[in-house]
Specification:
546 residues, Rossmann fold, seven-stranded mixed β-sheet, 12 helices, alpha/beta, 27 strands, Glutamyl-tRNA Synthetase, domain 2, 3 domains, binds adenosine-5'-triphosphate, single chain, binds magnesium ion, Ribosomal Protein L25, Chain P
Length: 546
């Protein structure tokens, strides 16, 4: 039986538009501002925009919304492109809002010519004060009645650099008493003598978001311009410009932003974490950025699955980060080979095993796939986890303790005979005996043991740095805390000096399941010295409702 997935509300709109012949083909766009790295919220928007075009045989443009020269950088442009491609998507065209500066300028001139825009000499404060409040209408000022000719001259001079930053703005002439504040003669151009990462010093006036976004959609013949809910009040303005300029009628549709527990999502806040050194960079594995998730060991498909599972909502909500972890865990459980690694090592010596002997034992790299076996070396000296030994075992303790028996995974049954402690009371060495006839796969011992523990041959191990990541914030929703930086989890990174089976093919980016411990991925800085990042734990903290 195939799973029937019901349509989300945007799919419903698109299907109706296609049915009614409003559009023959759909066109969407993903419009990032290149002022930071992409995060999982952007992934939601990417999966939605590109996914719709793929589903309905349309195309998606990548458009950099680079109308703010001060905060933008080519470093961000490059990382954004890398992340989208990594997620598995290909854009039809790569565009920049700055490519449209000349056209946008002409649009502004045409508004002036229609008597629908004017140059205002007032300060930002005065303009804000005159805007009124949601309950009181705004007031118009003396500049509103400037003649078309004067406006044309002044706007041209603004472009030519005759004025200083903030000395004048161009405003749309709509309605100072409109109930929607965005319609009270919004500023559409401002003066900013700043170098732009693409247009250099060609321009000293820059269009505002509202005057660039919809028009860019229209220039590209975007049919469905999808954005987040906070733009609902901007929609009348979006439509007003298109109507007055008589350009291609793009339409804006809004869905809920993705918010996730135990993290922050805005680039501004993520930038603070980077700049103030709370994380090592934008791609720190604790960051909700796509590059951080990638470094942590997330796969593109696990992120796409997550975005599909959360759906397209019309109301803001907070998604449990465990759902994201669930998605990667489900996938890695199928794809990541098992290896043994010991993160908190203590030495185990098998007294009755020939100290000069070594043997190779077969173990499965995937459960129930007997053809996927590898050989691991075994000797009289092993590393095991400190947490697998208890000097005074509690009830139902099936692991190692004085006198207790346990199976070493894929090896033998051993019995703990004695142990040594140092002055601090820490167990430093455990001694055991093994049952030669209990070898896994050929067990004639007739013994049943309840516990199985993992191990690594101390005579043939690789040392590795293992980075255990936990949630970056202790607060469930740090974004609404007074100072989100005070809620950083002090234990969000714990570094272990571990041992792993020798011969593990640990190329950067490779995924493994460390038996009994979790899913790990080889860090990009891994080289001579192996470095692993924990992608997620083994335990399922979350089961989504089906
Ligand atoms: P931020 O506040 O993180 O800077 P933004 O919306 O300003 O986010 P943009 O680069 O302008 O970031 O966004 C590009 C696209 O991604 C926009 O269409 C935006 O609506 C969408 N987007 C950004 N954040 C989210 C989110 N959390 N959930 C869904 N879509 C998002
Ligand atoms: Mg933004």
């Amino acid at each position: 039986m195939t799973e029937e997935k019901s349509l989300n509300f945007i799919e419903e709109i698109i299907e109706e538009d296609l049915r009614n012949g409003v559009h023959q083909k759909i066109k969407t766009r993903f419009p990032p501002e290149p002022n930071g790295y992409l995060h999982i919220g952007h992934a939601k928007s990417i999966v939605l925009n590109f996914g719709l075009a793929i589903k309905y045989g349309g195309t998606t443009n990548l458009r950099f919304d680079d109308t703010n020269p001060v905060t933008e950088d080519t470093e961000y442009v490059d990382s954004i492109k890398e992340d989208i491609q990594w997620l598995g998507y290909t854009w039809a065209n790569e565009y920049y809002a700055s490519d449209y500066f000349e056209t946008l300028y002409d649009y502004a001139v045409s508004l002036i010519n229609k008597g629908l825009a004017y140059v205002d000499d007032s300060s930002a404060e005065k303009i804000a004060a005159e805007k009124g409040t949601p309950t009181t209408p705004g007031q118009s000022n003396e500049y509103r009645n400037r003649s078309i000719e004067e406006n044309l001259t002044l706007f041209k001079e603004m472009r030519e650099g005759k004025y200083r930053d903030g000395e004048k703005v161009l405003r749309a002439k709509i309605d100072m008493a409109a109930p929607n504040m965005h319609m009270r003669d919004p500023v559409i151009y401002r003066i900013k003598h700043a170098h732009h990462h693409r247009t250099g010093d060609k321009w000293c006036i820059y269009p505002m978001y509202d005057f660039a976004h919809g028009q860019s959609d229209s220039i590209e013949n975007i049919t469905h311009s999808i954005c987040t809910l906070e733009f609902i009040p901007h929609r009348p303005l979006y439509d007003w410009f298109i109507e007055k300029l008589e350009i291609f009628p793009s339409h804006q549709y809004e869905f809920a932003r993705l918010n996730m527990t135990h993290t922050v999502m805005s680039k501004r806040r993520l930038m603070q974490l980077v700049n103030q050194g709370f994380v090592s960079g934008w791609d720190d594995p604790r960051m909700p950025t796509i590059s951080g998730l990638r470094r942590k060991g997330y796969t593109p498909s696990s992120i796409r699955t997550f975005c599909d599972k959360i759906g397209v909502a019309k109301r803001d909500n907070l998604i449990d980060i465990s759902l994201l972890e669930f998605c990667v865990r489900e996938e890695l459980n199928q794809t990541a080979p098992r290896v043994m690694a010991v993160l908190d090592p203590v030495k185990l010596i098998i007294d009755n095993y020939d100290p000069d002997k070594s043997e190779y034992l077969e173990t499965e790299s995937f459960p129930n796939q007997p053809e996927m076996v590898r050989k691991v070396s075994f000797s009289n000296t092993l590393w095991i986890e400190q947490s697998d030994f208890m000097e005074e075992p509690m009830k139902k303790w099936f692991r190692l303790a004085p006198g207790a028996t346990v199976r070493l995974k894929s090896a033998y049954i051993i019995k703990c005979e004695s142990f040594k402690k140092n002055a601090d009371g820490q167990v430093t060495e455990i001694h055991a005996t093994y049952l030669p006839e209990s070898k896994s796969g050929a067990d004639h011992s007739g013994m049943k043991v309840k516990g199985t523990i993992h191990w690594v041959d101390a005579k043939n191990a690789q040392s590795a740095e293992v980075r255990l990541y936990d949630r970056l914030f202790t607060s469930e929703n740090p974004a609404i805390e007074e100072n989100f930086l005070e809620h950083i989890n002090p234990d969000s990174l714990v570094v272990k000096q571990a041992y792993i089976e020798n011969g593990t093919a640990a190329k950067p980016g490779a995924h493994f399941q460390f038996v009994r411990t979790g899913y790990f991925c080889v860090d990009k800085d891994s080289g001579e010295k192996l470095i692993f990042n924990r992608t997620t734990t083994l335990k399922e903290g979350f089961k989504p409702k089906e």
